[in-house]
Write a structure and sequence with these properties.
- By secondary structure, this protein is of the alpha/beta class.
- The protein folds into 2 domains: 102 residues; 194 residues, Glycoside hydrolase/deacetylase (TIM Barrel), CATH 3.20.20.
- The protein is 58% helix and 12% strand.
- The strands form 2 sheets. Strands 1, 2, 3, 6, 7 and 8 form a 6-stranded parallel beta sheet that branches. Strands 4-5 form a two-stranded parallel sheet.
- α7 runs parallel beside α8.
- The longest helix is centred in the first third of the chain and has 101 residues.
- The chain starts with a helix and ends in a 15-residue tail after the last strand.
- The relative contact order is 0.12.
């Protein structure tokens, strides 16, 4: 009886232990299943992220390729346009060279001390009507007169430098102050046109003597310094005298036409300062005379040989 009871007790304990083991195994199995699901989800998320990254990278690469293609096309377009412009310039140079070879001489019309709101646009109108290019040696200008600098550029004239100021006492204190005067107006012109000008004319010309009053020997130093700095300076060999003794348009006409000589480069000094109506009134007649006499009109460029005076200080 006691033996039977012990057997029953052992069997009961064994069953209970088996049930507990079975429950524990189920928990472990469920845990593994959950862990597997989590791992699968993580893997799927990683695959999705990876696929998205690949897709974005492919898209970015496609965008880059398209951008490179557009850039290449734009560069090619610019290169073709630049080549066309260069070829056109070469043809124009060749045409001008042929004209000059058969011409009586060359006339370079130059205008100092502008731009001004009354004289400059009227001079530009005449030049445009006669299809003549000229050179403007400019001084400091305000926002209103900036439009005339832009127009000079657009209509193919040369914008050269005369100085930020024309005040001799400020310009000729030293070689440095004169160079700074050119640099300052050069920077203003660059801001307006996007182009650097290295063609200059000294206030009063390189032969001026007034500079002695402020700095002895300054012009002797300057004519060498500016060349070293890459500038090219121009004086004149024909003076209209419109800033001096000439009182009428007839005076201007006579001074210019009598001063022009054949078989040379004639650099004519005139001005577009405010109210210079005598020069405005004479300009068209001067152009007509020049063309009738077989001269050609040119603007000063970086390739034009310098026309200079002897230095007196």
């Amino acid at each position: 009886m006691r033996f039977q009871l012990n057997l029953d007790l052992k069997e009961g304990l064994t069953v209970k232990m088996n049930e507990e083991v079975s429950g524990e195994n189920k928990k472990k199995l469920n845990y593994k299943r959950v862990l597997l699901v989590v791992v699968i989800i993580i893997i799927m998320l990683l695959l999705i992220i990876f696929a998205t990254v690949i897709k974005n990278n492919n898209k970015a690469e496609q965008i880059r390729i398209e951008a490179d293609k557009v850039a290449e096309e734009e560069i090619m377009k610019i290169a073709i346009e630049t080549q066309k412009k260069e070829e056109e310039r070469q043809r124009e140079k060749e045409r001008e060279k042929q004209e000059e070879e058969s011409a009586t001489g060359i006339i370079f019309l130059t205008f100092d001390d502008g731009p001004t709101s009354d004289s400059t646009p009227q001079i530009l109108d005449i030049l445009k009507n006669r299809n003549v290019k000229a050179t403007f040696f400019v001084l400091h200008y305000d926002e209103h007169n900036e439009q005339f600098i832009k127009r000079e550029q657009q209509e193919g004239h040369t914008i050269a430098l005369h100085g930020y100021t024309h005040n001799y006492s400020e310009v000729y204190q030293s070689a440095e102050t004169c160079i700074e005067n050119f640099e300052k107006i050069g920077n203003q012109v660059y801001q307006t046109t996007g182009e650097r000008s290295k063609i200059i004319r000294f206030p009063g010309g390189s032969s001026n003597t007034i500079s002695k009053k402020y700095c002895k020997g300054v012009m002797t130093e300057l004519v060498n310094r500016v060349i070293e700095l890459g500038y090219r300076y121009f004086d004149w060999n024909v003076d209209s005298d419109d800033a001096g003794h000439a009182k009428t348009s007839q005076d201007i006409y006579n001074n210019v036409t009598s001063g022009i000589k054949p078989e040379r480069k004639n650099v004519v000094l005139m001005h577009d300062f405010a109210g210079n109506y005598k020069t405005i009134d004479a300009l068209d007649s001067i152009i007509s005379w020049g063309l009738e006499q077989g001269y050609v009109f040119r603007k000063i460029t970086d390739e034009t040989p310098m026309v200079t005076h002897g230095v007196n200080n």
